[in-house]
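Inverse folding, one chain.
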């Protein structure tokens, strides 16, 4: 993935790279990023979503659309493929980073590092791909306006939230451009820092932040085991709770179960373990897989093959749950230079390791029956903010931290000095991003209405409340 980002100018002094970035404004003025008008031949967003559905588990798609039709923000969450198509026609500076690809404000959250410290960072990388840094920033800013409107904020406040995203990103990138390389790589936002931001700028929402952190601390692997598994006849297994959690033994016929030999399962397990660093392979050698289930989660990813595996170790209560999530092509891939990966799951894992300050020690990948899967631990001290519980100042504080995390990820994988030079120190770029975010939020509302009408007419089947 990093081959595309071989920085030809990295040997230049920082000032020279800043000037280089500034020179790109001649071809692509900063104000041009504020433009958004749907093209006359813009693809139908419903068609784009349905094209992406091909190859997914069709029986689960009504759940996906039931979740997306809940609100314009829910639609935005599930329609990265639509915004990717739109961004492909937008102006770009020409500077590349490894993109999250789906950097809306709900794809950030709290999780534990390998050292068991709680940090705040980007937490979704299904769409990760090398591309223009502006794309991630525009998606985050647009999501700010859509979410603000959903919370009932004034329109001027919603536009201000997009401005917070742009300004926070720009100011953070300035700091990263001047910092030592290792300082950028090691930089992380722990929950103490997160709380300090809320205490300083959004006192009323600081209690919400504290409650979110407390929930993350309480969401241990032991608690997840207690919630999702039970002991039957002395053996721990997943609780069968269709349609969101279905044991694989309930999905397969006796004949299919017999065809899935122990050798086949062992090969799939070994393939995953071999994707891990050597010391973690030794760790995983202490566990054995004892049960599995199909699990439905998220919004846009509903319908992809997502399973969970129960692993048991030496002691009676020594167990954990790993999630296997199918990885298809990134929504961005069709609009950017093609890069070859060992698998789509490897693309996701590499993107996450490059962009995150600290990643899950169980993060790895394999291939099963022609489908690519990446693995991670399920719900171990992970928690996301409920946007509807944040007031204007609270959401602004939250978005500022999100933007810093995004800038750090881009600085790790791109040329921070050149990006800084392009944006400059004034507000021209901030205002352009705010203008775009409002216009694209309007577009999202129109696209959401198309989905609502398709559901109402029966063109799209949606199962709500699941």
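Residues assigned per position:
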């Amino acid at each position: 993935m990093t081959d595309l980002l071989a920085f030809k100018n990295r040997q230049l002094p920082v000032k020279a790279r800043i000037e280089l970035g500034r020179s790109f404004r001649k071809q692509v003025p900063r104000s041009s990023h504020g433009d958004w008008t749907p093209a006359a031949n813009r693809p139908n967003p419903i068609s784009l979503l349905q094209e992406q559905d091909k190859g997914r588990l069709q029986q689960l798609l009504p759940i996906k659309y039931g979740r997306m039709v809940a609100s314009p923000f829910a639609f935005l969450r599930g329609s990265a493929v639509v915004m990717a198509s739109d961004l492909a026609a937008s102006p770009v500076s020409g500077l590349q980073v490894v993109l999250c690809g789906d950097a809306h404000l709900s794809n950030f959250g709290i999780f534990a590092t390998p050292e068991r410290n709680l940090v705040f960072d980007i937490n979704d990388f299904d769409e990760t791909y090398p591309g223009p840094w502006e794309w991630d920033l525009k998606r985050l800013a647009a999501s700010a306006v859509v979410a603000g409107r959903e919370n009932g904020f004034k329109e001027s406040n919603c536009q201000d939230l997009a401005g917070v995203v742009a300004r926070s990103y720009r100011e953070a990138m300035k700091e990263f451009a001047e910092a030592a390389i290792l300082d950028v790589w090691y930089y992380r936002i722990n929950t103490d820092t997160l709380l300090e931001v809320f205490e300083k700028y959004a006192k009323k929402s600081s209690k919400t932040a504290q409650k979110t952190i407390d929930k993350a601390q309480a969401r241990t692997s032991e608690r997840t085991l207690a919630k999702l598994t039970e002991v039957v006849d002395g053996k721990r297994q997943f609780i069968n709770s269709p349609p969101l959690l279905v044991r694989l033994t309930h999905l397969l016929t006796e004949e299919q179960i017999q065809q899935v030999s122990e050798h086949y399962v062992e090969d799939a397990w070994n393939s995953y373990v071999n994707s891990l660093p050597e010391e973690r392979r030794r760790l995983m050698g202490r566990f054995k897989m004892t049960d599995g289930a199909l699990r439905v989660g998220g919004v846009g990813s509903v319908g992809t093959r997502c399973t969970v595996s129960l692993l048991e170790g030496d002691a009676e209560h020594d167990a954990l749950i790993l999630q296997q999530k199918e990885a298809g092509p990134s929504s961005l891939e069709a609009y950017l230079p093609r890069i070859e990966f060992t698998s789509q799951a490897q693309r996701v894992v590499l993107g996450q390791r490059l962009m995150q300050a600290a990643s899950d020690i169980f993060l790895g990948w394999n291939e099963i029956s022609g489908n690519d899967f990446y693995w991670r631990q399920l719900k171990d001290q992970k928690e996301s903010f409920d946007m509807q519980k944040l007031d204007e100042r609270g959401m602004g504080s939250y978005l500022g931290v999100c933007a810093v995390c995004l800038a750090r990820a881009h600085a790790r994988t791109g040329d921070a000095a050149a990006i800084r030079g392009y944006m400059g120190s004034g507000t021209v770029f901030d205002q352009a991003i705010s203008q775009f975010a409002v216009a694209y939020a309007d577009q999202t509302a129109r696209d959401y209405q198309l989905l609502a009408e398709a559901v109402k007419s029966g063109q799209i089947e949606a199962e709500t409340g699941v």
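The longest helix spans residues 428-457. Residues 276 and 364 are 6 Å apart (CA to CA).
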